[in-house]
Design brief:
The complex is a heterodimer of chains A (about 230) and B (about 200). Chain A is an all-alpha fold. Chain A is about 70% helix and about 0% strand. Chain A contains ten helices and two strands, in the order αααααααβαβαα. Chain B has a five-stranded antiparallel sheet with strand order 1-2-3-4-5, sandwiched between helices. The chains are: A mainly alpha (about 230), B alpha+beta (about 200).
Chain lengths: ~230, ~200
């Protein structure tokens, strides 16, 4: 378990075991905040940072923590990390913090974080735990941003609206208007839009996976055919 | 057993220390951000050149049924010691379509509206949210209005025979906002002088 190669960690986090699309974990914030790219990115990055830090800390203290107190200690670590991040966001990204509101503290209850601490970080080296946290967080963020882009484009006809809340005044004109005078497709912004969008993303991922599998199967069987003909 | 307990206690202490340290490090900055955010909202309605006092300092709290169920901060603008305007935040319009709508309402000393802004709501996106300044200019049309403009019976949405537009598919939201603004104007008209008379000591 402790010698998972880094390549596998990257592949698992981003694709094969993507927290949002495969493990389907931590959906509450995912669905609630993914109504625009900037909101999704904000929450995604906060989750990424939390996962990386909590995984690293959990791995660092793994020899000190006896099995009986494992869960309370992990919860404590995660809660501390999230609280610290929330305070920092409130201080330095105040307006974004106002928008994301309750969903930042709710990262504590995001089961993907305790899941990675328990399943992976507590049993492996610091470097691997850190990489796993980062990659799982990145996978989550990418799925979130994709869903956010989908919903924002359909719902408002824009992309990256309000980017200045996150990147400062220079980003005021980053907003891409896909369609002028677009009235918006309400369903995409409302909660059902999040479920439908996530369903579509999972479906697309599964289609790609099955295509890859079929392609691989062909690639394996081809030499045989070639051999048979020869 | 004892060792496990001690370890857990140690982690609790360390965790609390980290949170306490972060809190201490960010406290000043958070207070500053909140101040700046509030001030920029107030300045949008009461430009800094129209008054010479500190809006955040010169404030008091009032509770009145016209302004909603909770205590409302009143920031007073003065120039050369004379009253200029008062900004109420948050005025609660309790009868929004999906819950209360929080408003910032600034009223000049002569009883005209310096402006109204929505600072929080949960109305349906796409239907009720044109009350936001970012989505439409509907909320800007309050500026300059007063209890005589339009006359009190006209302080309603058009559907109810009043002077204010409603939105396609959403009447309840603008109706709630119009009513809250009207109530606030009435409150201001009745309490204007005592609002400006009270010392800033009540404020924080």
């Amino acid at each position: 378990m402790s010698i998972t190669p880094y390549k596998k960690i990257v592949h698992d986090g981003l694709w094969a075991n993507n927290p949002a699309l495969v493990q389907i974990l931590g959906l509450c914030p995912l669905l609630a905040v993914s109504n625009s790219v900037v909101n999704a990115l904000g929450l995604g990055l906060a989750t990424l940072l939390t996962l990386t830090l909590s995984n690293t800390i959990v791995s660092l203290i793994r020899d000190l923590v006896t099995p009986e107190i494992r869960l309370p200690v992990f919860v404590l670590v995660i809660a501390c990390v999230v609280t610290a991040i929330e305070l920092a966001m409130n201080a330095y990204l105040h307006e974004l913090h106002v928008i994301l509101g309750i969903f930042i503290p709710l990262i504590v209850t995001n089961c993907i974080i305790i899941a990675r601490a328990e399943v992976f970080a507590s049993k492996t080296t610091v470097g691997r735990a850190c990489a796993d946290g980062f990659m799982m967080g990145l996978g989550s963020t990418l799925a979130l941003v994709l869903l956010g882009a989908l919903r924002e484009a359909l719902g408002h006809g824009t992309l990256l609206a309000n980017a200045h809340l996150m990147f400062g005044a220079a980003a005021k004109d980053w907003t891409i208007t896909l369609m002028e005078h677009y009235h918006g497709f309400l369903l995409a912004i409302l909660p059902p839009g999040a479920f439908i969008g996530l369903g579509l993303l999972i479906a697309v991922k599964n289609v790609i996976d099955s295509r890859i599998e079929r392609y691989r199967a062909q690639a394996v069987s081809l030499p045989h055919e070639a051999g048979a003909k020869a | 057993m004892l060792r496990t307990g001690a370890a857990l206690a140690l982690f609790a202490v360390a965790g609390t220390a980290i949170v306490a340290y972060t809190f201490d490090q960010t406290r000043a900055r958070i207070a500053e951000s909140e101040r700046a955010a509030l001030l920029s909202k107030l300045h949008a309605l009461l430009p800094p050149d129209q008054h010479d006092n500190d809006l955040l300092q010169d404030a008091l709290e009032v509770t009145a049924p016209e302004l909603g169920p909770r205590a409302v901060k009143v920031h007073r603008a003065r120039k050369g010691g004379l009253p200029v305007a008062a900004a109420f935040t948050p005025v609660i319009a309790p009868d929004g379509y999906s819950g209360p709508i929080k408003l910032l309402i600034a009223i000049r000393y002569d009883g005209t509206l310096a402006g109204v802004r929505v600072i929080g709501h949960r109305e349906t996106p796409g239907l009720g949210d044109p009350i936001e300044e970012a989505r439409s200019d509907w909320i800007l049309k309050f500026t300059g209005r007063s209890l005589d403009n339009p006359q009190p019976p006209q302080w309603k949405v058009k559907k109810d025979g009043g002077a204010f537009d409603q939105f396609t598919g959403a009447t309840i939201t603008p109706r709630a906002v119009v009513k809250a603004v009207y109530n606030s104007l009435n409150y201001f008209a009745a309490h204007r002088d005592e609002l400006f008379a009270q010392g800033a000591a009540d404020g924080r």
